[in-house]
Fold:
Amino acid sequence: MNIQNYIYGRFIDPVSNEWIDNYNPSVGQVYGQTPNSGKEDVEKAFQAANKAFPSWSNTSIDERSRILLKIAQLITEKQSELAAAESKDNGKPLALATAIDIPRASANFRFFANAITQFASEAHESVGMDAMNFTLRQPLGVVGCISPWNLPLYLFTWKIAPALAAGNCVVAKPSEVTPMTAFLLGEICNRAGLPKGVLNIVHGLGTTTGQAIVAHPKIKAISFTGGTQTGAHIARVAAPMFKKLSLELGGKNPNIIFSDCDYENMLHTTVRSSFANQGQICLCGSRIFVERGIYQRFKVDFVEAVSKLKIGDPANPKTDIGALVSDQHLKKVTSYIANAHKYGGTVLFGGNNVQVEGLEHGYYLQPTIIEVQDNQCKLNQEEIFGPVVTIMPFDTEEEVLQMANDITYGLSATLWTNNLNRTMQMVKQIQAGIVWINTWLLRDLRTPFGGVKNSGVGREGGFEALRFFTEPKNICIKYQTSENGLTTKK
Ligand code: NAD
Structure:
């Protein structure tokens, strides 16, 4: 199935007529073509958005909210079609796309449709100066949203929904690796009555389409989720134009397990936090540190639990681990495993490519557990972003805290303990944007989401996202007070 750009409510081919192959990773075959849009296409999308902006930014909050709720509802109605498309495009289990990706895409629109009705700005009375200040929060204009391939519609809508709710018009680009559900979203927006030009979706490579969005002088802000290197490049391009930037980047998150934890819950959740979505979630706990007292027990139980995971056809409801997203990504991940020994690691489980019957050319890899001796090794310092975790023991809180923080990334961390004092001391010192205690990936959309250090700048989620997509303007009103405090004289 071929994909087209969605500009001013219409589906159109790229000006250059350049196309990219779109792969189904579960079978390793091309199943469609995606536009590789250039500057001209991005300009068309910008013009459409710019034309729509005066009207959309003045559309009442109730009306904007109503349209976004309608989009949410239509996503839910089309859940099975969207989940099937997501699974085919990405290789993720259909069950996961059905339970997580698509419901969350709908929830993103529903959440921001409601959040905008509660969004308010501050007022500051300058007491003693006879002045009153209030803050106007106005939409920025045309903004750019660029998203990655691991949670395609989930992350695409996580940016678009708050941008639209706040009254902006959008030029958006999904990953060229997984463009299908973003394409399907265009039709949903038309059916929901989103006015033409409010959302425009251009497809293509990062270096052509993405670059054209970031470099466009009139696109006011860029909300980006993706790799750290790409984020650094985007920051370099956008900074001289003083664009507002939100960068959600890579992670290499510690999963810290103390012996006083609820062991069964920890074990079950750690299997998920290691390998959900084939380990291709920026929040996966890929560095597992286990207190020495339970290290041997954990090692045996973890290997046993992971060995039971079913790798196979993403469409099979019993599949736990589907295909990796692309051949290129599979090769990157397997190169870390092939060199594990050189990097000081010992493979305890997995490490091999898997031939799935009937799907022999798909990109399947066993979930892989590598024991390491030193947090400084490459396996612990670089983001692999696949079904690969490392494990190593620790003895003290001080030691594990030092290792958890001794990395360039700082996205999330998980802590397993029932000791409240330890929890409170550690959460203050862990360098991360999100810390989960005795759970993982429990998300409340009102909370700030983002990372520190090389994991990014800025926060998404709740009012943080609405603040990002609006410009605060201070209005200061000076007044005069007469002697009796009233304007009418006696
Ligand atoms: P990527 O950086 O290669 O691509 C992300 C998006 O940016 C894609 O749409 C791509 O086309 C575009 N892009 C690439 N080069 C560009 C350029 N020069 N200018 C503009 N756009 C460009 O990342 P990926 O491989 O798609 O995704 C995996 C990465 O995303 C991992 O590092 C992962 O940790 C990260 N990620 C982070 C979060 C988070 O919330 N922090 C969430 C999911 C994924």
